[in-house]
Design brief:
Shape: globular
Strand content: 25-35%
Oligomer: single chain
CATH superfamily of the largest domain: Alanine racemase
Helix content: 25-40%
Number of strands: 24
Number of helices: 12
CATH architecture of the largest domain: Alpha-Beta Barrel
Mean pLDDT: 96
Bound molecules: pyridoxal-5'-phosphate
Low-confidence stretches: none
C-alpha cells in the first residue's frame, strides 16, 4: 500500500487524507467522490516555484488548468503565487470567477475563436501562446480594432516528442500544434509577428509530451530552440525574453512509475539551459513551465462504493463500482493504469486479483484490469488513487450519470468545492417538444 501525500490510516483502520476519515466523507457526500489533498498540491507548487527562486532564475510556473479547473482549485493556485494556463473561454471564465489575476493568465489552444480572443483581450490577460498563422492574423486584427496590444509567445514544435521514459527526435513533427521549428514555419511566424506593432513577441513556447520521467527531452527541446534563437538574434536582432518549456512532468500512478521530484526536474533543465544560452552568447531568459498533472494528479483520490461482481471461471473476477468512465475515462482513452485499495481497510492483505469495472453500458468501461486486493464486499468503499488530473476535467454524463462531487481536505477539515450534479441538472438544458401529458 503506497500512501500519497498526507494519506494514512486512523484508529478505525480507515484510510485518511488530510487528517479526514474517507469513510466519513463517503457517508456525508456520497460516492463516487473526488477528494483532493490540498497540502500535497501546495507542496508540489512550492517544489517548482522555490527551486527557481533558489537558483536565482526569473520564472513563471503556470498551472495547466485543463488538468482540473474549478473556482476553489484556482484559488489555491492563486494562493501559491503560480500563474495559470487556460485553453478555452470556459477555463478563462472560471479563472476570472475565481478572482485570478489576469496578468498571470496565459491563453493556449490551436483554434481560439474570435470571441475567445476578444474576451481574453477585454480581461487583460498576460499572454497569448500563438499557435498558427490564422491566429496571428485574427489576434492582430482584434488588437487593432480594440487598440489594445498583446504579449505573445510563439508555440513551436521542436521535433522532439517525449513519452514517459524516452523521447524521439522527429524530423518534421506531425502534430496539430504549433509552428514547425525545422521547416521555417516558426521563422516565418516570427517575421510576421515582429512586423506587427500591436504584438509584442516575448519568446518561444514548446510542450513536448506528457507523463515524462526524465529531463533529456526537455533539454533537447531547449537546445533546438536556442539554436534558432542564436540565428534570429543575428538576423532580426530578436531577443527571447521568455523560454517556455511546457509541462508534462510525470507522476506515480503505479509502482512501475518512477518520477523525480519537481525540484530535480527544474534544477537539471535550468543547468542545461544556462549552459546552452552561454554557449550561444545569449542572455538568460525568463523560464516558464506549465505543470498540470504533476501539481494535482497524485493529490486526487476517487472513492466508489462496491456493488455487484461476476466471476468468469479461469479468466477473471469483475468487481463493479458505482462510477467508471463517466468520472475517469483515462483507462478507456489511453490504457491508463491505477492502483486502489479498500478504504475501510486499506491495510488488509490482498487475497485476490480483480478487474474493477464501471457501471456504464460499454465493455471498455473498466477502471483497473488487474488489481490485487482484499476480498471486497458490496458496500465496501474502494479508493482509486492518483485521479486528480484529467479525472473530473474529463468527466461526462454518459448514460446520464451525474458528475460526482469534489471535496478538498486539509488539516483535518473538509470543504465541498463542487456539488454533485442532480437529475434536475441533467435535464436543465433540455427543451420538451410537447407539453407533459
Ligand atoms: C497539457 C499541457 C500541459 C500540461 O501537461 P501535464 O502533462 O498535465 O503536465 C502544459 N502545457 C501545454 C501546452 C499542454 O497542452
Amino acid at each position: 500500500m503506497h500512501y500519497y501525500g498526507t494519506s494514512g490510516t486512523n484508529e478505525k483502520g480507515h484510510l485518511t487524507i488530510g487528517g479526514v476519515d474517507t469513510i466519513e466523507l463517503a457517508k456525508e457526500y456520497g460516492t463516487p467522490l473526488y477528494i483532493y489533498d490540498i497540502a500535497l498540491i501546495r507542496e508540489r507548487a512550492k517544489g517548482f516555484k522555490e527551486t527557481f527562486e533558489k537558483l536565482g532564475v526569473t520564472s513563471q510556473v503556470a498551472y495547466a488548468s485543463k488538468a482540473f479547473s474549478s473556482i476553489a482549485m484556482i484559488q489555491v493556485i492563486e494562493e501559491e503565487g503560480l500563474s495559470l494556463d487556460v485553453v478555452s473561454g470556459g477555463e478563462l471564465y472560471t479563472a476570472i470567477q475565481a478572482g485570478f489575476d489576469p496578468e498571470r493568465i496565459h491563453f493556449h489552444g490551436n483554434n481560439k475563436s474570435k470571441e475567445e480572443i476578444n474576451m481574453a483581450l477585454d480581461y487583460g490577460i498576460g499572454c497569448f501562446v500563438v499557435d498558427n498563422f490564422h491566429e496571428l492574423e485574427i489576434l492582430s486584427e482584434a488588437c487593432r480594432s480594440k487598440n489594445i496590444p498583446a504579449s505573445i509567445l510563439l508555440r513551436v514544435t521542436p521535433g522532439i516528442e517525449a513519452h514517459t521514459h524516452d523521447y524521439i527526435l522527429t524530423g518534421q513533427e506531425d502534430s496539430k500544434f504549433g509552428f514547425d521549428l525545422q521547416n521555417g514555419q516558426a521563422e516565418e511566424a516570427l517575421k510576421l509577428a515582429l512586423a506587427k506593432n500591436e504584438l509584442k513577441v516575448l519568446g518561444l513556447h514548446c510542450h513536448i509530451g506528457s507523463q515524462i520521467f526524465e529531463t533529456t527531452g526537455f533539454k533537447k527541446a531547449a537546445e533546438k530552440m536556442i539554436e534558432k534563437l542564436a540565428v534570429w538574434k543575428q538576423n532580426y536582432d530578436f531577443t527571447s525574453q521568455v523560454l517556455n518549456l511546457g509541462g508534462g512532468f510525470g507522476i506515480r500512478y503505479t509502482k512501475e512509475d518512477t518520477p523525480i521530484a519537481p525540484s530535480e526536474y527544474v534544477k537539471d533543465i535550468i543547468s542545461e539551459v544556462k549552459t546552452l544560452m552561454k554557449n550561444a552568447s545569449l542572455s538568460m531568459p525568463e523560464i516558464w513551465i506549465e505543470p498540470g498533472r504533476s501539481l494535482v494528479g497524485d493529490a486526487g483520490t476517487t472513492l466508489y462504493t462496491v456493488g455487484s461482481s461476476k466471476v468468469v471461471p479461469d479468466i477473471r473476477k469483475y468487481l463493479a463500482v458505482d462510477g467508471g468512465m463517466s468520472d475517469n475515462i483515462r483507462p478507456a482513452l489511453y490504457d491508463a493504469r491505477y492502483e486502489a485499495a479498500i478504504a475501510n481497510r486499506p491495510e488488509a492483505d490482498c487475497e485476490e486479483t480483480v478487474a474493477v469495472a464501471g457501471k456504464c453500458c460499454e465493455s471498455g468501461d473498466m477502471l483497473i484490469w488487474d488489481l490485487p486486493i482484499a476480498k471486497a464486499q458490496p458496500g465496501d468503499v474502494l479508493a482509486v488513487f492518483c485521479t486528480g488530473a484529467y479525472g473530473y476535467a474529463m468527466a461526462n454524463n454518459y448514460n446520464r450519470i451525474t458528475r460526482p462531487a469534489v471535496v478538498f481536505v486539509e488539516n483535518g477539515a473538509a470543504a465541498l468545492v463542487i456539488k454533485r450534479e442532480s437529475y434536475e441538472d441533467l435535464v436543465r438544458h433540455d427543451l420538451p417538444l410537447y407539453a407533459h401529458k
